């Protein structure tokens, strides 16, 4: 008898990713690619069996997502047929072998997943030498986080070692599966607990809040394009030791010290005294979640007050208080915070800062070593936030990457940011009493801010047709604006990624048509979008195709958008 598929609600974090995924077109922004390094006498068949054991052990690795009654649910397939793809590169010349391995990893990392089909992962084994391999893993973020990747490595090592010695798998069954966690989470964060956390965030993020100013090279380009790249950053072991010692003396965490320095760096560019930088938190409160593969992360917006020309030490104290308060209320979903009325037109996805902890860099077995690589190992060619500084401790030092969206930043600007950040860390550790205004201004802020101001306001023209009024009403509700003109631009009104997802969902329900994010980019005013939708309604052949068939239209739309931006200076 066929086993019944299990159905569970989405966790709050999964829900955020799922709705965002509906608004992006054929984009691998949530692909997590990694290449584990395997050195020694590897038995590929035993590796395959080990991975199959892990897939059967964790329900989340057999999960896919469907809609039921207009709500997303996650379904768990009883089983998934698995065979490990193996690619032999041993006979290639050294340089070509490296290029070929990199190309395979890149293509895999940039191939999107379809959330409605399991599995949401891909495994490939690259044979480089007789005793050197790479295990390529590409997995969708909706079922995986940073901790999960280390957990995967540890379980793989344990199971592989036992199978290679002819033993049975000794790992105990999981006490809970990820789907059961989502049920618990919904019950736990309910009623008074939810209201208490919401009230705290309303107080913390109340009043007039502005989007973070960043040193954009091309501020007029659309930031909802996710094409991105990264630069590696290395903080030497000696400076890392000084930073850790300083943090211990001041009774703060290394995260707080580095975040404060990052905000001071941004202040040298923007002179912004009210600053929001986001940071991920693990969300693994309960002991049983430590052994679960899954997506537990939440994002918290940290609002820092930089007014009054504080010293580094004084600002560090403010960051400490802000972070501790945020940690007390870190369970409230990020999307709930972003939807607070005064934040609907604020772009919270400008800057991300993270200091991640790696339990182990490598695991040594009797005939094999499994090594967890650095951040820069594989990149999927996207950036979710405009700017993300991601660090982790490695071999006594701090290593990481500065991810950024291409187009709005030039590579030279990013490299300058890295150099200035390193110099700033050295300076602040030596002279922690330095004040903000004693530091050099890194860009003509007044000129940059003037350039960002709109030259003229769009005059209000009332929508006349029913379809125009319906679109305008949706924008008003989502963006929390009083009136939307026929010629108002959705993105200039504050339409960011979360707002795009909400508008897209509401318009699709309203007009019973599929609408893509490309359509919102191509027809960004009420007038043009109404004309486009009206044209589609009158057409005998549906104009809205699937994501795959929109690729050409997306490219043309973005080219037109860039040209319009260029024409407007």
Features:
569 residues; alpha+beta; Chloramphenicol Acetyltransferase; Non-ribosomal Peptide Synthetase Peptidyl Carrier Protein, Chain A; 3 domains; six-stranded mixed sheet; four-stranded mixed sheet; 15 strands; 40% helix
Distance between the termini: 66 Å
Give the domain tally: 3
Report on the biggest sheet. 6 strands, mixed
Query: Poorly predicted ranges (pLDDT <50, ≥5 residues)?
Result: 450-456, 537-558
CATH class of the largest domain: Alpha Beta
- Write the CATH architecture name of the largest domain: 2-Layer Sandwich
Number of helices: 17
CATH level-4 homologous superfamily of the largest domain:
Nonribosomal peptide synthetase, condensation domain
Q: How many strand segments? A: 15
Textual characterization of the structure:
The longest helix is centred in the last third of the chain and has 20 residues, at 411-430. This protein starts with 5 loop residues before the first strand and ends with a helix. Helix 7 (237-249) packs across helix 8 (254-270), helix 8 (254-270) crosses helix 9 (312-328) and helix 13 (466-479) crosses helix 16. The chain has 569 residues and is of the alpha+beta class. It has helices at 12-21, 44-57, 94-109, 146-164, 178-188, 191-204, 237-249, 254-270, 312-328, 334-338, 411-430, 445-452, 466-479, 497-511, 517-522, 526-537, 551-567, and strands at 6-9, 31-40, 63-68, 71-76, 85-88, 121-129, 132-140, 228-235, 274-281, 298-305, 351-356, 362-364, 368-371, 387-394, 397-405. It has 3 domains: 6-180, Chloramphenicol acetyltransferase-like domain (Chloramphenicol Acetyltransferase), CATH 3.30.559.10; 192-451, Nonribosomal peptide synthetase, condensation domain (Chloramphenicol Acetyltransferase, 2-Layer Sandwich); 466-567, ACP-like (Non-ribosomal Peptide Synthetase Peptidyl Carrier Protein, Chain A). The chain is 40% helix and 18% strand. It has a 6-stranded mixed β-sheet with strand order 5-6-7-2-13-12, sandwiched between helices. A 4-stranded mixed β-sheet has the order 8-15-14-11, covered by helices on one side. Strands 1-4-3 form a 3-stranded antiparallel β-sheet.
């Amino acid at each position: 008898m066929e086993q019944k598929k299990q159905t569970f609600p989405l966790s709050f974090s999964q829900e955020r990713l799922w709705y965002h995924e509906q608004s992006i077109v054929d984009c691998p922004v949530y692909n997590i690619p990694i290449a584990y390094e395997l050195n020694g006498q590897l038995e590929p068949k035993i590796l395959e069996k080990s991975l199959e054991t892990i897939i059967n052990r964790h329900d989340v690795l057999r999960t896919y997502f469907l809609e039921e009654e207009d709500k997303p649910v996650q379904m768990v397939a009883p089983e998934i047929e698995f065979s490990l793809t193996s690619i032999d590169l041993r006979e290639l010349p050294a340089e070509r072998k490296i290029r070929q391995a990199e190309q395979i990893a890149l293509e895999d990392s940039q191939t999107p997943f379809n959330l409605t089909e399991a599995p949401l992962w891909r495994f490939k084994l690259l044979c480089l030498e007789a005793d050197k391999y790479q295990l390529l893993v590409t997995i969708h973020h909706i079922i995986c986080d940073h901790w999960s990747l280390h957990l995967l490595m540890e379980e793989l090592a344990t199971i592989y070692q036992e199978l290679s010695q002819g033993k049975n798998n000794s790992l105990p069954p999981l006490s809970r599966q990820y789907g059961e966690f989502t049920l618990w989470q919904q019950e736990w964060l309910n009623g008074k607990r939810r209201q208490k956390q919401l009230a705290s965030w309303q107080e913390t993020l109340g009043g007039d809040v502005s989007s973070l100013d960043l040193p954009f090279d091309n501020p007029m380009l659309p930031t909802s394009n996710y094409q991105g790249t990264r630069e590696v950053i290395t903080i030497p072991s000696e400076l890392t030791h000084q930073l850790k010692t300083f943090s211990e003396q001041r009774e703060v965490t290394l995260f707080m010290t580095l975040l404060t320095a990052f905000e001071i760096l941004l202040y040298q560019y923007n002179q912004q005294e009210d600053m929001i930088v986001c940071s991920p938190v693990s969300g693994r409160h309960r002991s049983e979640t430590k052994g679960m593969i899954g997506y537990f992360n939440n994002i918290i917006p940290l609002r820092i007050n930089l007014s009054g020309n504080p010293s580094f030490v004084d600002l560090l104290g403010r960051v400490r208080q802000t972070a501790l308060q945020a940690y007390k209320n870190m369970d409230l979903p990020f999307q709930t915070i972003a939807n607070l009325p005064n934040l609907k037109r604020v772009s919270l996805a400008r800057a991300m800062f993270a200091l991640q902890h790696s339990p182990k860099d490598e695991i040594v077995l009797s005939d094999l070593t499994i090594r967890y690589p650095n951040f820069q190992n594989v990149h999927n060619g996207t950036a979710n936030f405009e700017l993300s500084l991601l660090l982790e401790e490695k071999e006594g030092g701090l290593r990481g990457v500065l991810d950024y969206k291409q187009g709005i930043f030039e590579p030279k600007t990013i490299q300058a940011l890295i150099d200035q950040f390193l110099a700033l860390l050295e300076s602040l550790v030596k002279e922690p009493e330095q004040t903000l205004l004693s530091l050099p201004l890194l860009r003509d802020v007044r000129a940059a801010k003037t350039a960002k101001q709109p030259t003229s306001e769009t005059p209000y023209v009332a929508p006349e047709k029913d379809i125009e009024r319906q679109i305008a009403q949706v924008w008003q509700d989502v963006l929390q604006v009083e009136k939307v003109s026929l010629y108002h631009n959705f993105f200039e009104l504050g339409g960011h990624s979360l707002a795009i997802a909400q508008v897209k969902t509401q318009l699709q329900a309203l007009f019973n048509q599929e609408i893509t994010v490309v359509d919102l980019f191509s027809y960004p005013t009420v007038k043009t979008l109404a004309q486009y939708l009206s044209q589609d309604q009158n057409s005998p052949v549906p104009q809205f195709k699937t994501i795959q068939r929109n690729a050409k239209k997306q490219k043309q739309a973005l080219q037109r958008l860039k040209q319009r931006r260029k024409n407007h200076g």
